[in-house]
Amino acid sequence: MPKLRNLANRTKELDIFLKMAAGDHDCRIMLIEGVSGMGKTSLLSRFRHECPSEVKFVPFDCKGVNSIATFLAEVVVDLGHENFPRFLEKVKFFVQGGVDFSENDIAAEKTISIAINSNVDLATQDYRLEQLQQAFFDDLALLEHRTVISLDTYQDANDSLQAWIETKWLRTVDRRVKNVVTVIAGQSVPNPNNSVWGDNCEHFLLTAIIDIQAWCEFCSDLPEAAIKAAAISCEGHPKNTHQTLSLLIERWSA
Ligand SMILES: Nc1ncnc2c1ncn2[C@@H]1O[C@H](COP(=O)(O)OP(=O)(O)OP(=O)(O)O)[C@@H](O)[C@H]1O
Ligand SMILES: [Mg+2]
């Protein structure tokens, strides 16, 4: 039965990612930009799959997310709330009561939102968010294991979350939390010319894969001429080429 390998090409990106995850690269921020179907999400799942087992991997998707609390909650729950004592202390302090910060991230997010927003004016909300994120960063800086935090579908995060990622999050990863690697993927990504962290990031623009050889390696069981025809007719667009090759595999010998 003919088989497709899981990704054509993208070896350069994987190579750098693995170096970052192993602590062997000179920066810890990766931006992956590309139009729909270029394979950003697929590449992130490949990264996760290939990530060394001693490295924790937190996958986050910005789709439909409109608060920083959601991001903080997901990271805290994924990495285990026992690793965030300073942060949880602040949450408890602001909530002033029983804290349901147990196993699921919806409850955690709700609690953090209450800690930030409940019945207080905007200035107090800003103050609380600042305090919480400082505590979160303090805890993150003390993590013993190397950690990868990926953010997919960046273009769908709302303006305030994008601004936070571009200023606070990337700045902190670059300057303070030396055990954290972050990968941000999207149809748009934070501006890599940022004066604070821009010199310390790898920016990849995913484009069509026009290298026929890469498609032949991806799909070794069809005749080369068929693979070439599929790649040429789809102009190397990864999603379309992949779909066409899958169809051909199904029908070729039928
Ligand atoms: N390098 C590749 N080799 C083979 N197939 C690929 C490759 N990249 C993507 N694909 C195929 O294209 C499909 C779409 O890819 P994916 O969802 O990763 O794109 P995306 O860039 O995340 O798109 P969007 O911006 O819409 O989220 C995947 O299901 C996968 O089958
Ligand atoms: Mg995607």
From TrEMBL:
Residues 11-162 form the Orc1-like AAA ATPase domain. Pfam families: AAA_16. It comes from the Bacteria. InterPro entries: AAA_16, P-loop_NTPase. This is Orc1-like AAA ATPase domain-containing protein. It comes from Shackletoniella antarctica. The lineage of its organism: Bacteria, Bacillati, Cyanobacteriota, Cyanophyceae, Oculatellales.
